[in-house]
Amino acid sequence: MSEKKNSNEAYIIGEKIKELRRLKGLTQEELSEKIGIDYKKLSRIETGKCLPSLKIAQAISIEFDFNLCTLLDNQLIKEIEIPDNYFVQALNILKSAKTKEERIYYLEALKHTQKCLKADLSSNK
Predict the structure, then answer these.
(1) Which of 12, 32, 38, 90 has the least C-beta neighbours within 10 A?
(2) Strand (E) or helix (H) holding 116
(3) Half-sphere exposure of 110 toward its Cβ, with a 13 Å CA cutoff?
(4) What would the pLDDT profile of 20-65 be if each residue is shown by its tens digit?
């Protein structure tokens, strides 16, 4: 992925998080406390300066009660290219988890990815 494409995705995702936070009536400090990160990190995510980690994205999806597909939305999902060794990479990431909590986050992210891909394939038929 090009750096410009990454920054565009980071901006879109950050804007969605900011909108959800505001709709719920939370400050950056309140949301960052709820999801267990520093408010400065949340600020960088909301402004598109960085993408949320898988763990942070999962915590945000739990806090706002939506799946990760909602955060990525169809526009971005359609731009994802799936490498041939995607499942091997996914298993390696899962194996790299050091704690049960990390494994759960990775498994949930994989489940959401699968749902997104199925939805994307259905809409392209």
Answers:
(1) 38
(2) helix 100-123
(3) 15
(4) 888 888 999 999 999 999 999 999 999 999 999 888 988 998 888 8
Q: Measure the CA angle with vertex 8, ends 6 and 12; round to 5°.
A: 115
From CA 65, how far away is CA 63, in angstroms rounded? 6
What Rg do the C-alpha atoms of the chain give, in angstroms? Answer: 15
* More confident: 88 or 52: 52
Token look-up 């899962």 returns: 94
* Paired tokens of 9: 């995705």
Token digits for 14?
């950050």
Contact 52, 45 (CB under 8 A): yes
Other Cβ atoms closer than 10 A to 23: 9
DSSP character string of 33-79: HHHTS-HHHHHHHHTTSSPPPHHHHHHHHHHTT--HHHHHHHHHHTT
pLDDT tier for residue 83 given thresholds of 50, 70 and 90: low
